[in-house]
Amino acid sequence: MGAYSSFQIGRYAFGDIKYTFDDKTMSVFTNDSFFHEEDDEVTTYFCKMKVSRYKYRLDLMGYTLIRARKEFDSIFRFEEYFEDIDDEYIPKDDVDFNFFVEKLKLFLSNEQISEPLYTLLEYMFNNEWPNKYVYGIPVSDIRLVVRVILEFCDEDEDVIYDVTDLIVSGYFIEEYDFVSQAHKNLLSMGQLYDKIIIVTEGKADIGILKKAFELRYTEEKEFFEFFDYGYKKLSGGTDEVLKLAKTFETIGIRNRIIFLFDNDTAGKNELFRFNAENFSYNMKAFCYPDLKFANLYPTYKNSKFSVENINGRAVSIELFLGSSILKYKDQYIPIEWKENGQGVIQNKERVKKRFYKMCSKNPEDIIH
Fold first, then answer.
1. Are 278 and 324 contained in the same domain?
2. Among 130, 232, 234, 274, which residue has the least CB neighbours within 10 Å?
3. Residues 306, 252: one domain?
4. Residues 267 and 183 in one domain
5. Residue 168 pLDDT > 90, yes or no?
6. Exposure of 275 by Cβ count < 10 A (0-12 exposed, 13-18 middle, 19+ buried)?
7. Domain final residue pick, 252, 271, 288
8. pLDDT of res. 109
9. Which helix H or strand E contains 42, and what residues bound it?
């Protein structure tokens, strides 16, 4: 009979594969999600992850509902799709992405379905389709179909990939690293995922964000890449960000790209210019968000002290480093207004050095 691996999405069985496993659905798991359990002298081997986490990781990889809908709209052709089914079974409703989602949910539910709907669902989702249809849905990747099915599940249900039969039957050894090998296989074919690129106004912001990911977002960091200004010998600044966006647009880079501006006057102006360009959907720009404590923040101009709202005027990345970094003798380090109207935190380099020192020695002491 052979040995099989089986993939289960919550309450929905997604089918078995003989003698091996599917790299794409396996690659979403992590090494810490692989388990083996012993019960009555039987050992089972499987990857297990909550629906909420599996969905989150798929979204970070770029396999989102938005992408599934876009691909469907691009690939689906009504006449071509239904050319091999009798007219009496062809749906009379508007056939769009939502139609496919509703019918897929019904097909997977194992409810008793009468004709002519039964034949239609069998044709749509239980057919031997060419490569352009994944599980009967006109999208390019099985991970997009899985992302759709995850919407039918409760967040605390489990996604399980069971490889017990493969190991017990001797096709894979017990120590085999299924997740890492899936990554290697897909990477060699260019099918793993495209990392999200983050572009900021300069090297200083990139350094701080990298450190934040290392300390706070250990799971997410594998999905992000930070643009290296040093490698490209670029100076940075708001103008440089817009130039880079235009370059990426021209060469047709397919990665999702996030452009980040300071929450100050220059950043707000550049964000307006960015949005006016109507760049591709894979490129988005944001200013750093407003901060509550920045509504009343100490400032200096020509040696005159005042307390002002600096949101939208002088909020740079240093303002997000936490009160343990920003305060000296229990007072916030002031913003100093320059002659050109730009606001800069005093002792900026010292503030950053203090942040990196605390990160290396006592990161748990960083207070937000």
1. no
2. 130
3. no
4. no
5. yes
6. exposed
7. 288
8. 87
9. strand 42-50
Q: Is 343 exposed, middle or buried (0-12, 13-18, 19+ CB in 10 A)?
A: buried
Q: What is the DSSP letter of 313?
A: B
Alpha carbons 229 and 203: distance in angstroms, whole number: 6
Q: Show Cβ contacts of residue 166 under 8 Å, excluding neighbours closer than 6 positions.
A: 3, 4, 5, 19, 20, 21, 172
- Say yes or no: 307 and 214 in one domain: no
> Do residues 132 and 9 both lie within one domain?
yes
Return the residue matching tokens 């600044």. Answer: 237
- Tokens 């496919």 correspond to 100
| Predicted local confidence at residue 177, as pLDDT | 96
Do 99 and 235 lie in a common domain?
A: no
Question: From CA 76, how far away is CA 296, in angstroms rounded?
Answer: 54
First to last CA, the chain: 59
SS3 20: coil
Q: Is the pTM of this model over 0.90?
A: no
DSSP assignment of 160-213? EEE-HHHHHTTSS-TT--HHHHHHHHHHHTT-S-PPEEEE-SSHHHHHHHHHHH
Burial of 161 (0-12, 13-18, 19+ CB in 10 A): buried
The parent domain of residue 256 ranges over: 194-288
pLDDT of residue 202: 85
- Where residue 257 sits, what CATH number does that domain have? 3.40.1360.10
Specify the number of domains making up the chain.
Answer: 3
118-149 per-position pLDDT tens digit: 999 999 998 776 667 888 999 999 999 999 99
Token reading at 263: 């929450």
Please say which residue of 142, 157, 188 terminates a domain.
Answer: 188
- Asked if residues 12 and 144 have their Cβ atoms less than 8 Å apart, the reply is no
Same domain, 270 and 327: no
Range of lowest pLDDT (217-221, 271-275, 287-291, 360-364) = 360-364
Distance CA(166)–CA(9), nearest Å, equals 19
What distance in Å separates the CA atoms of residue 55 and residue 148, rounded to the nearest whole number?
10
What is the pLDDT, as a whole number, of residue 42?
A: 84
Pick the closest to residue 255 from 194, 199, 200, 191 (CA basis): 194
